[in-house]
């Protein structure tokens, strides 16, 4: 059978970074383009079972129309945070469930007490006191859940952000999905990096050997969750191969961030620069954002910058480093002199100004767990990245040199990357920034993430097993 492909030239560039398999699917599914092309697609199935789709759902196109049915969704999340305090997991919860509530679904959030809950339509909170260890009190949240489930409409689907709902309770729930924001197997990479960077004066910890037991423990209890969402391609692979979960229960949905807030706006960047007194004469602005702690690689970049500033006064005088966020390393950075500004924590909207003001976003994180939202925010604003060579980052985000630079977590490698960025200069960086935004618009918007989750939830909420339309992907 021959199928007319209304294929679009603009997607080709983007697609070339994926395997030919994905390319085939993509070519098949991309619509709305001009050039006519005839390709025999005998080998491509007309329909695709979403539950066994091997790559990120973000690659697929979901229609933007009203949902075919409105779901009642239970969400279990440890904390419901405020924006500027939110870590990765909480940000994911906030972005995703605000979007789903806005689409008309009824969200019930089971979480521990929070100081300020915004009143958003369709979003209902069930609060409880956390346990001493900081987890949700499982007995209490379960009781709240059962009450809500038996009064009026019952829940269509249950979502747990990591172990928000523990495996002891998740066992018999076939309509449950858990999103993992860091699993023990990924943490082993972080542990190895920390051990390699350990000051010989500091005693070795037992974390390295303990972590392996933790992995085994996870492999044993993960099957008690019906469906698993991996937030990177790498984690999807680990869940299927090392955690041995069946393919049809592992789904890759990459994180997304709010594309209405994070977008190119030169005026916002200029405003930001004048507010913080950044000199226009500087030829290159490097930006970092997040918690200023050891885990995020601040000791490493501190040392790399210290050495470079000493080696090259030209570098020091032409470059400015902006650091948004707070934490123990904020004070240390003052030692690096006037080429580095610590800005403190920024509000959500200010953060968009920050990304617009910089030329390249630097994230030297040593944490292999999860997928850092800051990378996606910078990409949506149209900035190239410079980040640690961690599998989630190289596999899902900086997939080529077009998006940015990667380095091994050592002072030497980081210095080399910094010099390379400096040598490339603004012109090259702007070009990479455009590629970064193109990729981010395709994959990393909150809208795309919410659409993929909505489809997954519709699919697993459906009781009919024989002909479930939501688990099937059609052109
Ligand atoms: C909660 O936060 C919103 C927006 O951040 C603010 O307008 C509101 O006054 C706050 N409410 C309370 C009770 O602090
Ligand atoms: C929620 O309510 C529905 C309908 O009454 C019931 O079938 C389902 O088992 C309940 N869920 C749980 C976890 O109790
Ligand atoms: C799950 O179902 C089994 C068998 O029906 C039952 O023995 C077990 O107590 C249930 N577990 C939970 C957590 O409800
Ligand atoms: C700075 O570089 C010089 C050589 O160029 C070296 O002698 C000196 O020790 C360095 N200082 C620091 C603080 O690294």
TrEMBL record:
Pfam families: Glyco_transf_4, Glycos_transf_1
The Glycosyltransferase subfamily 4-like N-terminal domain, residue ranges: 87-260
Glycosyl transferase family domain sequence ranges: 275-433
Entry keyword set: Glycosyltransferase, Membrane, Transferase, Transmembrane, Transmembrane helix
Origin: domain of life: Eukaryota
Transmembrane segments: 7-28
Entry GO MF terms: glycosyltransferase activity
InterPro entries in UniProt: Glyco_trans_1, Glyco_trans_4-like_N
Protein name listed in UniProt: Uncharacterized protein LOC105170859 isoform X1
Organism: Sesamum indicum (Oriental sesame)
Taxon lineage: Eukaryota, Viridiplantae, Streptophyta, Embryophyta, Tracheophyta
């Amino acid at each position: 059978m021959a199928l007319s492909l209304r294929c679009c030239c603009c997607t080709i560039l983007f697609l070339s970074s994926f395997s030919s398999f994905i390319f085939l699917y993509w070519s098949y599914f991309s619509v709305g383009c001009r050039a006519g092309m005839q390709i025999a697609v005998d080998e491509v199935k007309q329909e695709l079972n979403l539950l066994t789709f091997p790559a990120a759902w973000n690659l697929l196109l979901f229609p933007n129309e009203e949902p075919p049915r409105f779901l009642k969704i239970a969400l279990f999340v440890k904390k419901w945070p405020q924006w500027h305090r939110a870590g990765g997991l909480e940000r994911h919860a906030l972005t995703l469930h605000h979007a789903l509530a806005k689409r008309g679904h009824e969200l019930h959030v089971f979480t521990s007490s929070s100081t300020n809950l915004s009143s958003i339509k369709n979003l209902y909170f069930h609060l409880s006191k956390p346990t001493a260890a900081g987890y949700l009190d499982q007995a209490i949240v379960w009781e709240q859940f059962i009450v809500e489930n038996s009064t009026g409409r019952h829940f269509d689907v249950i979502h747990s952000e990591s172990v928000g709902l523990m495996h002891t309770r998740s066992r018999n729930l076939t309509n449950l999905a858990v999103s993992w924001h860091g699993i023990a197997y990924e943490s082993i990479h972080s542990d190895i990096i920390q051990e390699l960077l350990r000051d010989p004066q500091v005693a070795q910890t037992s974390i390295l050997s303990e972590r392996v037991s933790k992995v085994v423990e996870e492999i044993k209890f993960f099957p008690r969750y019906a469906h698993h969402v991996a937030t990177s391609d790498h984690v999807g692979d680990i869940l299927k191969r090392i955690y041995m979960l069946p393919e049809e229960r592992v789904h890759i949905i990459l994180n997304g961030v709010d594309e209405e807030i994070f977008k190119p706006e030169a005026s916002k960047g200029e405003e930001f620069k004048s507010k913080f007194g950044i000199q226009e004469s500087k030829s290159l602005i490097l930006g970092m954002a997040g918690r200023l702690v050891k885990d995020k690689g601040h000791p490493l970049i501190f040392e790399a910058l210290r050495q470079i500033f000493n080696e090259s006064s030209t570098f020091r005088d032409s470059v400015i480093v902006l650091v948004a966020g707070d934490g123990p390393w904020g004070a240390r950075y003052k030692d690096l002199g006037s080429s580095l500004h610590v800005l403190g924590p920024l509000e959500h909207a200010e953060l968009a100004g920050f990304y617009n003001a910089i030329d390249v976003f630097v994230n030297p994180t040593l944490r292999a767990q999860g997928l850092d939202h800051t990378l996606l925010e910078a990409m949506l604003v149209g900035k190239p990245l410079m980040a640690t060579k961690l599998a989630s980052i190289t596999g899902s985000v900086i997939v080529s040199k077009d998006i940015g630079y990667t380095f091994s977590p050592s002072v030497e490698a980081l210095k080399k990357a910094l010099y390379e960025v400096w040598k490339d200069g603004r012109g090259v960086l702007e070009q990479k920034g455009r590629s970064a935004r193109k990729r981010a618009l395709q994959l990393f918007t909150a809208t795309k993430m919410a659409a993929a989750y909505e489809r997954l939830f519709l699919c697993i909420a459906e009781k009919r097993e024989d002909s479930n339309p939501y688990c099937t992907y059609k052109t």
